[in-house]
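As described in the Methods, two query proteins were run sequentially through the folding procedure within a single session, without resetting any intermediate state between them. The first query and its resulting structure tokens are shown here.
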Amino acid sequence: MLPDVKTPSSARNWDNLPLNEPPDSQHLDNIKAHLDLILMALEALTEISSDGILQAVHALNLEEVIADRVALWRLRQSNPLRKSTGGRKKMDVEEARSLVLIIGYLAQQHQELLRRAVGLLEQTISQNQPPSQASLLGDYLDNFSQIYQERLEEGEKMTAEPLTQLAFKLLVDLLFYSSPNGHRRLWLALLDYSYR
């Protein structure tokens, strides 16, 4: 059972997730890909399953947007960088905002674990030690690498160093998104990222 976490007063109220102009299809593809990467990092650290994500959907009253496991799977498959082509659908802005709320909610629930992991990362770097030697970080890195290589087209081509850097960058980002207003930070970062 998921603990209660303070969430926006209405998950369907997008007031704190501004959108001056709707992103075009290329920018929406960038948003989809980045959201999926963030969810992969969250999965790798917390070992959260689809059921855990669906519990967050229920807690946030987002069932109209993500009705069940199949809808969640199809939404995740909308990442254009995924290996699988079956079931792929276009993600709309409301679905992207829903995933942002879900990620913020789950990151907030796992904030203590995120803090511990980022603290270990900072500690090992300051001591000039490989972060993977800390068991929590080593497990996270192994899980992230496996998920990335299994699911993404470029997964098998990605060398260890850039994959490690990506995994740790996403870990630090997740800590920022675990703050009370983290979903807004994530949304603004996505908008900024998608136009690069």
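Immediately afterward, the second query was submitted; its sequence and tokens are:
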Amino acid sequence: MPYTIPTSLELTVLDTRITPAEKQAPGFSVELRQILVWMCVIIGGAALVTMTPMGSRWYLAVGTIVWILLFAWMFLRADKFRRFKLWQVVAAFRMLPKSARLVDADPSAPVGPIHDLTGVKSVDTPLGVDGPAVLNMVSGRVGMAYQVVGNASTVLFERDAQQVVESYEVFLRRCEPDWLVVQITVRRAQSVHRQIDAAKALAATERVKNNAALSKLVADKIAQLEKVGRVHHTTQQAMLVTASDLDSLRSAQAMLQQTESDRSLALRDIVPLTLRDVGGLLGEIYGGRAQTLAR
């Protein structure tokens, strides 16, 4: 059965969006609140300038109009709780000093600010740098990050979409209360470092080094892969699972492996991230190109 997202109970009549005909203004819509505010601004400004002593001097008239426009702009900038976002101005002034915009990362600098920013205290690699990375969080929890592939992109019919949603709901119900599952969507460069490492290993072999043609061919391949990594981007899904201890985390990993082996519509492919992959994921998150959804 089809489903819809219910309208928020916080919306009022003033939140109604007015959309003109597509031919008149394609892609344009405005809230009823904005229309009423700007009507009041125009009528009120004209009345103050023409019907009061404020219009007797040009600087009084200009000051009045500017003040009314600033008030209207601040009113429309209020968030859904009707609070003015003055804290953004305060935060901007706090970021003016250069020291407030930098985080020391040299070996002798304290790492506390970085821990507070990422929430990750350290990363262990019990199976080596190419094995799954275990994250030790500042809160005392432990976690693992995964690259996941779902089935939403292959959906063709409405019944398929409903099956994907139901399968994912079953997956979430299988999660223990101790687990924190965070879905992360990142738009990042194509991950080609494994192909580049394999090509460099091939270039280091005696067979390639002693053959100029093969050496040039492998060098061209590495250059093309590096170009792909710089130019081409893709939308990828990641998942961060944290638990209170390692035993609970192992149970979570076993459940994820079982979900993958069941060929469920919830998640088609689940790959644990290595130390290098985790670093790239954190860089994308704190670079501002990620969206997260926590269970």
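The beta strands are 17-18, 30-31, 120-124, 134-137, 142-149, 180-189, 233-243, 269-272, 290-294. We note this only descriptively and draw no conclusion about the first query from it.
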